[in-house]
């Protein structure tokens, strides 16, 4: 949206009070995210000036319009998450209106990817960029609202993804993070077999100057041997996989409508490590899903202790009206959910420290993300760490932000590494 707004001569304002349009990109996936969106909208509505227009965009707008308008009377417009590319047309409508009722921009469109109007579907943060390869999802996970918000899977044409990647290379980006609701499903709707692998094969040829290509949000059960072999063979494709498993008890997984053959999952993870010994594996789990008793939680803990992931995220179950799991209710007490989350993270902390210590004495490439004000210490990430969700590398020495440097690791903290900058 920012790219499209800039084309029309609009530029970002540093402070809300200086902006003509206040655009809030909301998330509708979890109750906590919706509450945050309402809080931000309410704050802006209470302080906006008569000539300013407040716009609600994003996923919450797609599925909770009424909640927004009931909670925030000062909203001037709402735009569907599937029509972000029409943001300028929508603002033209809002600019010319003088009504107490918000303008609703919701054309009838099923696809989450329409005419992208030449935008680069990448979000750049320093030397790293998230690059969207698909939108929507055709899975039917019981806890998830994404298919109802986004619709089914729609893959971006491969040539558009590659063009975006080339533009990122030209701008000096050092890392591309491939994202979608399910990256391993890329190309299914285009008739591609093993589409993610095919895309990566073309990417490494198209952007040879980008040292890191990272894969996020892969789906268990469909990670192919050819994908693993490509990771082993291509230096650019990082030995890193994010596989959100969500649970490890077969009964809970069946209730979640997730792959429930835990034995097969363990065999797949073992195979991946046999082909790519240095691979960093990340996963995420939900605790407190309806039906999760002490035994089911113990199965999850034992699975984590046995597999020993490099990184792990734990979330308490969020009851979502309209999700397939709605009839199951929300029977697990919130206190129990939190206790289980904290216990599992404590178990993982010991595992993360153990795995981090294996890198003491080794030299790693690190993408620098910041330097302290005294220029004595720098912060960055190794191949083991995805942006925002994993650990960091604390570097003794001043390094250039957004550049790749060599670091000799000499210590490990639970989730982070410490090392010296090499010349």
Task: Give an overview in words.
- The protein has 3 domains: 104 residues, Rossmann fold (3-Layer(aba) Sandwich), CATH 3.40.50; 236 residues, tm_1862 like domain (pyruvate-formate lyase- activating enzyme); 59 residues, OB fold (Dihydrolipoamide Acetyltransferase, E2P).
- The mean pLDDT is 93.
- Helices cover 34% and strands 22% of the residues.
- The longest helix has 24 residues.
- It has 423 residues and is α/β, with parallel strands linked by helices.
- The protein has a 7-stranded mixed sheet.
Comma- or semicolon-separated keywords:
Rossmann fold, single chain, five-stranded mixed beta barrel, 22% strand, 3 domains, pyruvate-formate lyase- activating enzyme, seven-stranded mixed sheet, OB fold (Dihydrolipoamide Acetyltransferase, E2P), alpha/beta, 423 residues
Gist?
The protein is of the alpha/beta class.
Set down the secondary structure blueprint.
Elements: H1 2-7, E1 21-26, H2 31-47, E2 53-58, H3 59-63, H4 65-71, E3 77-79, H5 87-95, E4 103-105, E5 122-125, E6 128-132, E7 134-135, H6 146-150, E8 154-155, H7 158-170, E9 175-179, H8 195-206, E10 212-215, H9 225-233, E11 237-242, H10 250-256, H11 262-275, E12 280-287, H12 294-307, E13 311-316, H13 334-357, E14 363-371, E15 377-381, E16 393-396, E17 404-413, E18 416-421
Parallel strand pairs: 1-2, 2-3, 3-4, 6-9, 9-10, 10-11, 11-12, 12-13, 16-18
Antiparallel strand pairs: 5-6, 7-8, 14-15, 14-17, 15-16, 17-18
Helix pairs in contact: 7-8, 12-13
């Amino acid at each position: 949206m920012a790219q499209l707004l800039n084309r029309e001569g609009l530029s970002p304002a540093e402070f809300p009070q200086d902006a003509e349009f206040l655009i809030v990109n909301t998330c509708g996936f979890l109750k906590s995210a919706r509450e945050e969106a309402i809080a931000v909208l309410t704050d802006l509505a209470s302080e906006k000036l008569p000539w300013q227009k407040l716009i609600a965009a994003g996923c919450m707008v797609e599925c909770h319009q009424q909640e927004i308008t009931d909670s925030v009377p000062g909203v001037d417009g709402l735009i569907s998450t599937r029509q972000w590319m029409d943001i300028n047309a929508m603002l033209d409508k809002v600019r010319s209106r003088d009504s107490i009722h918000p303008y609703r921009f919701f054309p009838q469109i099923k696809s989450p990817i329409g005419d992208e109007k030449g935008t680069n579907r990448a979000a750049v943060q320093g030397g790293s960029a998230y690059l969207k390869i698909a939108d929507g999802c055709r899975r039917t996970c019981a806890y998830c609202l994404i298919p109802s918000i986004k619709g089914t899977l729609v893959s971006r044409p491969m040539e558009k993804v590659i063009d975006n990647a080339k533009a990122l290379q030209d701008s000096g980006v050092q890392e591309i993070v491939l994202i979608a609701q399910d990256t391993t499903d890329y190309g299914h709707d285009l008739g591609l077999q093993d589409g993610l692998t095919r895309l990566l094969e073309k990417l490494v040829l198209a952007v040879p100057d980008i040292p890191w290509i990272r894969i996020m949000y892969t789906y268990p059960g469909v990670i192919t041997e050819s994908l693993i072999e490509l990771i082993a063979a291509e230096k650019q494709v990082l030995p890193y996989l994010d596989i959100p498993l969500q649970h490890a008890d077969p009964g809970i997984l069946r209730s979640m409508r997730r792959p429930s053959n835990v034995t097969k999952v363990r065999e797949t993870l073992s195979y991946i490590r046999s082909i790519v010994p240095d691979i960093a594996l990340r996963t995420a789990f939900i605790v407190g899903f309806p039906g999760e008793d002490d035994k089911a939680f113990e199965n999850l803990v034992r699975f984590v202790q046995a597999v020993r992931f490099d990184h792990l995220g734990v979330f308490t179950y969020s009851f979502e009206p309209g999700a397939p799991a709605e009839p199951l209710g929300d029977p697990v007490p919130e206190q129990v959910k939190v206790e289980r989350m904290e216990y599992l993270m404590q178990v993982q902390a010991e595992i993360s420290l153990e795995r981090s210590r294996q890198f003491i004495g080794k030299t790693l490439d690190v993408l620098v993300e910041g330097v302290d004000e005294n220029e004595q210490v720098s912060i960055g990430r190794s191949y083991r760490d995805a942006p925002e969700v994993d650990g960091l590398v604390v570097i003794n020495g001043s390094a250039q932000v957004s550049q790749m440097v060599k670091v000799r690791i000499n210590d490990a903290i639970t989730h982070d590494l410490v090392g010296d900058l090499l010349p």
